Automatic annotation (TrEMBL):
InterPro entries hit by this protein: Aminotrans_V_dom, Cysteine_dSase, PyrdxlP-dep_Trfase, PyrdxlP-dep_Trfase_major, PyrdxlP-dep_Trfase_small
Keywords: Iron, Iron-sulfur, Metal-binding, Pyridoxal phosphate, Transferase
Family, similarity comment: Belongs to the class-V pyridoxal-phosphate-dependent aminotransferase family. NifS/IscS subfamily.
Cofactor(s) this protein cannot do without: pyridoxal 5'-phosphate
SUPFAM superfamilies linked to this entry: PLP-dependent transferases
Entry keyword annotation includes Iron: yes
UniProt name for this protein: Cysteine desulfurase
GO molecular function: cysteine desulfurase activity; iron-sulfur cluster binding; metal ion binding
Gene3D superfamilies per UniProt: 1.10.260.50, Aspartate Aminotransferase, domain 1 (3.90.1150.10), Type I PLP-dependent aspartate aminotransferase-like (Major domain) (3.40.640.10)
Catalytic activity: (sulfur carrier)-H + L-cysteine = (sulfur carrier)-SH + L-alanine
Keyword Iron-sulfur in annotation: yes
Start and end residues of each Aminotransferase class V domain: 12-354
Length: 372
């Protein structure tokens, strides 16, 4: 990793500024190589959320600019991460008053595992479809989406396609050019990199009208002084994650299998993670009807196990997971949801301990009953 001790503004026209610029550009080159993109396609941002916003808003307004006001349909499933759901809702709301939103939301249908039902999608048309967006892997269930299929359809129709790959990058092989999407979002803290560092890959021919105005850094998409230290840390973490990916996948798959077999033996348990159809190896999303999700995580917390009821990104908000309800799970069942994730710090002993605790924790939570 480059010496990033005293990096100044990479836009500075002095020696230390030029050094900072070199560090930033080396990181860009490394990220591009690791993700199958060109150097010019790599834009550093401050989070996965920011990358998603820049892409979906940028492509939506880019569609208006290049294809006219009739390009107003945005295709997205309700099971997306809030970084997408909230952005699409905002674009499709009546922002200026007067009853005339600029975009319409076309909800992408999903099956009971949360995967987009590709055969039920409407025919895409460049004149009316502004943008389609889909996550590569769901942050709650870990289930993979048919993003390559969707990318092919979007490209054939000339409709821009954004992939939220925040959960995938560093955990699955990602080749941006082979995938063929217009843009792709990633987040460094998801693959062991620094917090508040994101990546947006954007094809050169993607028409992106950035909602960020300013000094025009990062191809004019992400104005603001760049962060060379963060970029270098992001590149180094991605390189490490990619080199350990296969071994880590095998290790975590064993953990997942073990936990799923313990869950499967608990009466009435529901399993939403679907390894047979393709899923991230470190995710287990399940539900125990009759138990309150909050009771499950509190009991596990007391035993020293960190878990959540749903999206960790919106933890603290006590409500049924929008991902599970979007998959058709009844609210009373979704309230008993438990999401467990394993990563590089998880050991076989941790998993054994969890497996021995879980049946008793579910019994206790069920005995405590549901909050009214
Ligand atoms: N998209 C997905 C699928 C995520 O899982 C997350 C965060 O967990 C985000 C977007 C947001 O990323 P960040 O936390 O970097 O803003």
């Amino acid at each position: 990793m480059a010496d990033t001790g005293m990096l100044l503004n990479p836009a500075g026209q002095y020696a230390s500024g030029r050094h900072a610029q070199r560090v930033l550009e080396d990181a860009r080159e490394q990220v591009a190589e690791l993700l199958g993109a060109d150097r010019a396609e790599v834009i550093f941002t401050a989070s996965g959320t920011e990358s998603d916003n820049l892409a979906v808003q940028g492509l939506a307004y880019g569609a208006k600019k290049s294809r006219g006001p009739a390009a107003r349909r945005i295709h997205a499933a309700t099971t997306e991460h809030p970084a997408i759901v909230e952005t699409v809702d905002w674009l499709c709301s009546d922002l200026m008053g007067g009853g005339a939103p600029q975009f319409d939301h076309s909800e992408m249908p999903v099956d009971e595992k949360g995967r987009v039902r590709v055969s039920e999608l409407p025919e895409l048309e460049a004149s009316v479809d502004a943008v389609m967006t889909c996550m590569w892997a769901n942050n709650e269930t870990g289930n993979l989406q048919p993003v390559a299929d969707l990318a092919g359809r979007a490209a054939a129709a000339g409709v821009p396609f954004h992939v939220d790959a925040v959960q995938a990058v560093g955990h699955l092989p990602v080749d941006f050019h082979a995938l063929g999407s217009s843009t792709l979002a990633a987040s460094a803290h998801k693959f062991g990199g620094p917090k508040s560092m994101g990546i947006l890959l954007a094809r050169r021919d993607a028409v992106l009208v950035s909602p960020l105005r300013g000094g025009g850094q990062e191809r004019g998409v992400r104005s603001g002084t760049a962060n060379p230290q963060g970029a270098a840390g992001t590149a180094a973490a991605l390189a490490a994650a990619v080199s350990e990916m296969e071994e880590e996948r095998r290790r975590l798959s064993v953990f997942r299998k073990k936990v799923l077999s313990v869950v499967g033996a608990i009466p009435q348990s529901q399993i939403y993670t679907d390894p047979s159809g393709g899923a991230l190896p470190g995710h287990v999303h399940v539900a125990f009807p009759g138990a309150e999700g909050d009771s499950l995580i509190m009991l596990l917390d007391v035993a020293g196990v960190d878990a959540s009821t749903g999206s960790a990104c919106s933890a603290g908000v006590n409500r049924a997971s929008h991902v599970l309800t979007g998959m058709g799970v009844p609210v009373e069942v979704a309230r008993g949801a438990l999401r467990l994730t394993f990563g590089t710090a998880t050991t076989a002993d941790d998993v054994d301990r969890l497996c021995s605790l879980l049946p008793g924790v579910v019994d206790q939570a069920r005995a405590a009953g549901m909050a009214s």
